[in-house]
What we know:
The complex is a heterodimer of chains A (about 325) and B (about 350). By secondary structure, chain A is mainly alpha-helical. Chain A has 14 helices and 2 strands, in the order H-H-H-H-E-E-H-H-H-H-H-H-H-H-H-H. In chain A, a hairpin with a 4-residue loop joins strand 1 and strand 2 (about 80). In chain A, helix 3 crosses helix 14 (about 290-330) and helix 9 (about 205-215) runs antiparallel to helix 10. Chain B has helices spanning about 1-20, 35-50, 60-70, 85-95, 125-130, 140-145, 170-180, 180-185, 205-215, 225-230, 250-260, 295-310, 330-335, and strands spanning about 25-30, 50-55, 75-80, 100-115, 120-125, 160-165, 200, 220-225, 235-240, 245, 285-290. The longest helix of chain B has 20 residues, at about 1-20. The interface between A and B is medium-sized, with 31 and 35 residues.
Amino acid sequence: MASTTTTVPSAGPFTDSRSFISRLRDGDEIARLVTFIFAGSVVLITALLVYELWRESYLPRHKFGFGFFVTSVWDPIFDKFGALPFIYGTLVTAGVALLIAVPLGIGAAIFLAELAPARVSDTLQFFIDLLAAVPSVIYGLLGVFVVIPVMRQYIQPALKSSLGFLPFFQGPAYGVGFLTAGIVLAIMVIPYIISVSREVLISVPRDQREAALALGATRWESTWKVVLPFARTGIMGSIFLALARALGETMAVTMVIGNTPTISASLFSPGYSIAAVIANEFTEATGDLYLQSLIELGLVLFLLTFLLNGLARLLIVVTSQRGSEMGQT
Amino acid sequence: MKRLASLVFAVLALVAMGVAQGALSINGAGATFPYPMYSKWFDEYHKKNTDLQINYQSIGSGGGIKQVTEGTVDFGASDGPMSDEQLKTFQDKHGFPILHFPTVLGADVPTYNISGVSGELNFTPEAIAAIFLHKVTKWNDPLIAGANKGVNLPGSDIVVVHRSDGSGTTYIWTDYLSKVSDEWKNKVGKGTSVNWPMGLGGKGNEGVAGLIKQTPNAFGYVELIYAIQNKMPYGKVKNSSGAFIKADLAGVTAAAASAAKNMPDDFRVSITNSPGKTAYPISSFTWLLIPSKFSEGSKRDALKGFLKWMLTDGQNETEALSYAKLPKEVVAKETKALNNIQ
Lengths: 329, 342
């Protein structure tokens, strides 16, 4: 009956005035501390990783400086190393992969979320999840035994005769090259795009769809103009997940890219990616400068992923602001 | 109490088992080329000495050199001898030198995939160097056709294939090219991994073989044993005496024989392009890298015992796996050099 002045731990972080030790006796506070340590350890591990990469690459950093980013030579005998062909190859293969995977993936996700009956959608989703679980070496083997011959015998000549005036489709058709690596990577990242986009599309509230249909929109118009924009941030998240996988993929790429450090506008040309060269040369690299140059390449890949993810975040923030503005008008 | 007792008993039993075995375990790592041979040898030797287990990881010649210098393995193996720089690094780190012991011989062969050509082509050193330097681009170039009169070579572009990973096979090939072509020596050099002027890269002998089999008009190099076991066509190479030799065990042993007489004491010798009428020019030793001092006497004695066996009984098993055995002079010299391991 009398108001007892027990201090009730409140939800806000700064309203509890007891000391830290006495707060620890609350299960809540312990839970906060423990989960904070878990989250913090992820950041700590990433920071340690970058620190190690930085520390173990001091030789090429001092010798080549920023020239490392713009040199095209990779010569272990005469000790001249440059990252440009590998950066180019990584970006080109990831770009080709996304160019193929994004329209196919989003289209498939729309079909599964909007147009297919629930049973079909769930069954297909099961198979798509299986695709995502296949190890990358298997995709590499698929590339070597199926994609390369098909590319060399059918697709590359066809592209050459029809679109050969473009600089992208010129040069001899070896079967291996940027285009083949891009296609194999596209097959690998499509499941990610489909799974995440489908989940996001399904979670768009029914009232949005029904409101559009009630206003007289066709099925397609309601999907394209209402549901997709609503799910935009989630779909972009899935695209950047796919991009992260495509940038770092090693085995499948090294089996089909031709492993030649060249920069060429033609997609038929063989190339090299950062992950592939590290996988190929690291165990046999003797000589400190050689080894540390490979480690610096790892640092470059990390920076590349970091930059692209940062751009992704920026894009999401900008478009969600615009999206929320649109939603309010 | 009962649980504690049974736990203590289990631990004691495990310890007793470990003590009763008294097994000595020696670890090595290095070249992939001789791995089938080493694997068989270590297995056979273990059957004869059941309390000794030698483990070998085929991580590549460079890896072997690195790990034995770091001290993470007891011995290394390499298809290319350690350079003076690498020897110095080992000496500086450990305070005593590391020794090379040749074990078997191997060879690289030029292999190709040209539609309509199923026989053996003849390759001169100039032709091989020119192809890999991108100076000769078509199969019917006079430099190739000149040595292959009567063969209908197409006018298509040659697709060069090389190794993308660091490898002793590449070391042997580039060592040979550095000897027969000054331009190659100055422009590219020799090593387990080089800056190839052009060509597609395949991972491992199997990657190169796969690329060559799939790509029409391809040309590349693989280890002899690999070509034999995978039934790949390979050509003859002209040796320094002017004869075109197809790689086989006799030709490889002949290449080593002429070098055997002038073998340096540290056994670091290159036998590519060696003299001798029947010598195959792209041959090489492969070496075990043994530190000259062991802190554990048991490991030293075990390794010395293995090496003695390898130089006698072990050499009789090489031909079954298509490796050439060491010449007698080299075996004799190595047996004497075993005393350098302390």
